[in-house]
Amino acid sequence: MSVQVDTRRLQGRRRSRLPDRLFSGGTAFVAVVVVALLVAIFVMLATNSALTWQTFGLSFITGTVWDPVTAVYGALPYIAGTIFSSAIALVLAAPVGLLTAIFLAEYAPRAISVPLTFVIELLAAIPSVVIGLWGVFVLGPFLKVTVESFMVDHFGWIPIFKGPAFGIGLFAAGVILAIMILPTIVTISREVLVAVPGSQREAMYGLGATRWEVISRVVVPLARSGIVGAVILGLGRALGETLAVTMVIGNGQNIPTSLFDQGQTLASKIATSFNEAQVGLQTSSLIALGLILLVITIAINIVARVFVGRASSRVGGL
Amino acid sequence: MAVVVAPVPERLRRTRRWERRYAIDRSMRTLALACTVLAVIPLVTILAFVTINGITALNIDLLTKPPKATGVGGGALAAITGTIQMVSLATLIAVPVGLLAGVYVSEFAGRRMANVVRFSADVLVGVPSILVGVFVFTFLVLPFKQYNAFAGSVALAVIMVPVIVRTTEEILKLVPGDLREASLALGVRRWRTVLSVAIRTGWPGILTGIMLAVARAAGETAPLIMTALGSRLVNIGDFSRPMSALPLFIYENARQPYPALNEQAWGAAFLLLLAVLIINILVRARSLRGPRR
Amino acid sequence: MTADPTMGEPTAESKLEIRDLDVYYGAFRAVRDVTMSVRARSVTAIIGPSGCGKSTFLRALNRLHELTPGARVEGSVLLDGADIYDPAVDPVRLRRYVGMVFQRPNPFPTMSIYENVVAGIRLAGRASRNELDEIVERSLTRAALWNEVKDKLNEPGTSLSGGQQQRLCIARAIAVDPEVVLMDEPASALDPVATLRIEELIAELRANYTIVIVTHNMQQAGRVSDETAFFTMNEDRAGYLVEFGPTREIFTNPRERLTEDYVSGRFG
Prior knowledge:
The structure holds three protein chains of three kinds.
Chain A lengths: L6 H4 L7 H31 L1 H7 L2 H4 L13 H32 L2 H14 L4 H28 L14 H25 L3 H9 L4 H12 L1 H17 L2 H6 L17 H8 L7 H28 L10
Chain B lengths: L15 H42 L2 H5 L12 H32 L2 H15 L3 H12 L8 H26 L2 H9 L4 H30 L2 H4 L20 H10 L3 H31 L4
Chain C lengths: L13 E12 L2 E12 L3 E5 L6 H7 L10 E9 L2 E2 L7 H7 E4 L11 H11 L5 H14 L3 H4 L12 H14 L4 E5 L7 H14 L4 E5 L3 H7 L2 E7 L5 E8 H6 L4 H11 L1
Parallel strand pairs in C: 2-10, 3-8, 3-9, 6-7, 7-8
Antiparallel strand pairs in C: 1-2, 1-4, 4-5, 9-10
Helix pairs in contact in C: 3-4, 3-6, 4-6, 6-7
């Protein structure tokens, strides 16, 4: 039972409140540091890429050439690579993730859904470089021999499916991103589905509905905004994912026109070129790529939060 | 009494017209199950390949020797010691910052300030880790023109802080207000109440959050690329120079065209995965069993 | 044991006949050995203290209790003479004929008033827009809601007051043209004015439907029902039927001591 007490009266004379004020002030200071960190990241990326923005202006974003020799830099191939690989990932992961969440939330008995959810969450804990390693030596060859060969042989006349297919490339990057964002989509969608009140389900069953009808006409519509948020959060993760993508996307410098082309994303370009870059315009341009990525990722994450609220209160967060 | 039961009328039976609705129900269920299996397969295959390839690559050399200066061979000693050192330093930096900020939001902040800090932490969690590396590069590497392990540790710390802030705040929120009030009513100072009542009660959950952050930091590669850089030399204690790390070791060896080096990548990956998964399973299984007290 | 006071005479007018019904959740028996008869186009009330299985019993009448894993019954429930627990019966189809209104109004928030009413009909396949319009008007009229919402059929179902929402749920339930409407304390979440309107509505609905209503409010049972069943429970926490008969008798001249205690306890 809580007792209403005037704690000030009990806390003694004013001067002995100093330790309290030091403590609360100290924590406040640290908290401000955290906020400042976010601002600082933006500021440092912006100032260290200033040279590039001054040199090229906004046409840096639409530039298609990246040539250190002639000192011409443009971000478009990497923006394209980022968007395309993320789009592939979403197209693959969203339906699979949503249906998986539906299975776990609505069809599976608890004895199955609890361990399965746990296992899927575990996938999110695997370091990106380990997934990339598997991607290079296992997934890439597998895709090459199965999906990609099939598509190139039968549909290669369509530009988007033009070969040759090496396994490594844009498609592989999309697949590996799909695998990595699946846990995000599944766990958040499952949570919002489970949160739909049982009374809603009862009402629909009471009208004489099958399970799928209850799911599709009542449960999913009620969970709609959370599901959208889950997918957008997955997109946010895909955009910023670096290592696994770097290892399987190859090294294309042009805007990919086929699914099986090699490419680069903003993150992978930074990862591969940063250390060899010359300080000056080249490094500045790489940092400019980072700034573009930062802005895109933060914007997407903010939009996602609007949809999801702070639905996930799982320890560790994703 | 005579029990007269009539036969089941047509309208209550499953008829052909209704078969369609049930067929849809059944096929959607099957589809959903198939998707679930599809979702689990990558994890299973990754675990399988890393374990099989990794265990065959594991030998004493891998664990105890540094990479050979030239050619192929040697081991991951530099990487193992590097990861241990940098993650430790990162934890030492990140835990006080994250903890205190989380305490502030939960215990002292007014609504607006709490929202600002919470928002910042949420956004920070979503910042790509490579950009954290670039950020730290700009002020801890570039000015000195020297890649160094301290910058690597700071980068890892920046990644850990928002995670710790969030989990600390959420755990502290769960500690009942009654406990704090009782302590204050007894005359205990505010700061001591927070420390010995709120934090002590929430400690298991807070520790969980810290461990998950540590596991995440141990697996990060991208932020280390342009800060600690990596190294073939075993570096013990010198944070002003480059240092190797397990993820960097894996990344470099995976790209080499020599199968022997690729093997080492699998071996190191196995070690890293083992460590990360053990932490995650321990921590999450605990929360599955439910909170203590 | 005296002559079994629970036996209503099975007549040609019996819409529902319950015979030796036990309802189990896993190993726990929630309802014990109920035998009673519900007359067609009448209102039958089920009263008794909380927790004695009234809602569980009600749900067993349209097999809605099966939504809970581990729920099962022994005994039979005859609808027009046919056992609804026969393996040949499809529970999904059954619920079109035995509908339900719940304690808390639960209109579908993502649907408009119009869509809420036709939600059940849409399950059975296409109907033309005209047919649907007709059904909507008829159902809302019968639920005494038409005049209040006819100009805002496209607004969300949740934009109505609590009492209106419940009448919307009633309209939704009767739109599929059931024969029996089960009501689980339909007015307990509503204010007295809304409650009264629901009670008036029930009296009107009697003309077209067989109604079984669970209520903890004895005055309501007295006002609204033709026959009343009194349930209670023992230490084993299994609900059982104590007495069943015409409402007037149950309240003024009950046969069982337990019934009399319960009924007079409230009035006194």
